[in-house]
Amino acid sequence: MATYLQDAMNEGILSQNHRSMPFMEMLKECILVFKQKQKIPNNYEVYFTSSATECWEIVNQSLVKNHSHHVFNGAFGEKWFEYASRLGKTTSSSKFDFQETFEGNISSSADVWCFTQNETSNATQINNSFFGKLNTEALIALDVTSSLGGIELDWKSGDIWLASVQKCLGLPAGMGIIICSPKAIKRAEEIGDYNHYNCLLFIRDNFKKYQTHYTPNILGIYLLMRVMQQVPDIQTINSLLKERAKDFYEFISQETNLDLLIKNEEVRSQTVIAIKGTVDEILVLKQKAKENNIILGNGYGAWKDTTFRIANFPAIEDWEFDKLKTLLSQ
Ligand SMILES: *Cc1c(COP(=O)(O)O)cnc(C)c1O
């Protein structure tokens, strides 16, 4: 990453105007290589925004006709629902237990169904197979903020995919990504929303020319391009991370006194692992980690003092996991 930053300085891309040829060529290459490595279908479109949170709002403004239905088991999904509820269109929700596999029938007449595919707050995920079975006229919107770049997603089973770059993609914070199927684009055209600076169609009109409607995060786009050029394709990353998650889950259950927050193996996230202990155990571990320059993610909300979270993201190296294991088995 340090080399890429230095290159960005040396190449002068950072001082380019965002309507200049060099910028446009970079944006084009970035989207191309991102789609290639993530195996995103050709007819899906990729746009950059400021954050995943902004994408939640874009979905509501530009893709929901009347009503969005939100299915969630944790804090990020709930927050999406709450934001959407304040924006004026009808919302409804199904909340499910985070230890359970979601199998509920959705009988909602909503025109967009929203899911948090990987719920970062409690380290659970909904599997591809679930989305593949949904049969509806509604658009399927998925928050993949903490899984995009780390797991193989079944793009065809969703219409709107949103994320930001600082989690699983391992980049500096400050950029969001929204990926749309042809069905989603068609919907945006039917709705024809041009009332906000960040309307999907307005973004799209600019991206068609490899431009952006406001000065974008040029460094973010450059770094994403460089990282995507260098990483293996998503199938390879997916297998490596799957193996490492499995190994780490086994290690926690078999070789430590700690517990896994998520008991149901089927719903355990591949990219975020939540580990549970007593308040004292967690306190001691966090102190030890700090002394060893390891950053443990805090537990979320009510689990703040009794859990911590480990990111199984591609940018994290195996030796870092080994170091963590040594620490946890002491
Ligand atoms: C972090 C996170 C977000 C918010 O991302 P921002 O880039 O801060 O807007 C949304 N959804 C999930 C699942 C997240 O993990």
What does this protein structure show overall?
- It is globular and about 55 Å long.
- The chain has 330 residues and is α/β, with parallel strands linked by helices.
- The protein is built from eleven helices and 13 strands.
- The protein is 41% helix and 17% strand.
- Helix 2 crosses helix 8.
Bound molecules: pyridoxal-5'-phosphate
Q: Pairing-aware structural class of the strands and helices?
A: alpha/beta
Domain module tally: 2
Q: How much of the residues is beta strand, in percent?
A: 15-25%
Architecture (CATH level 2) name of the largest domain: 3-Layer(aba) Sandwich
Write down the CATH topology of the largest domain: Aspartate Aminotransferase, domain 2
Low-confidence segments? none
Radius of gyration: 20 Å
**Outline type:** globular
N to C succession of SSEs: HHEHEHEEEEHEEEHHHHEEHEEH
Mean pLDDT: 96
Specify the CATH homologous superfamily of the largest domain.
Answer: Type I PLP-dependent aspartate aminotransferase-like (Major domain)
How can the largest sheet be summarized?
Answer: 7 strands, mixed
Q: Approximately how much helix is present in the residues?
A: 40-55%
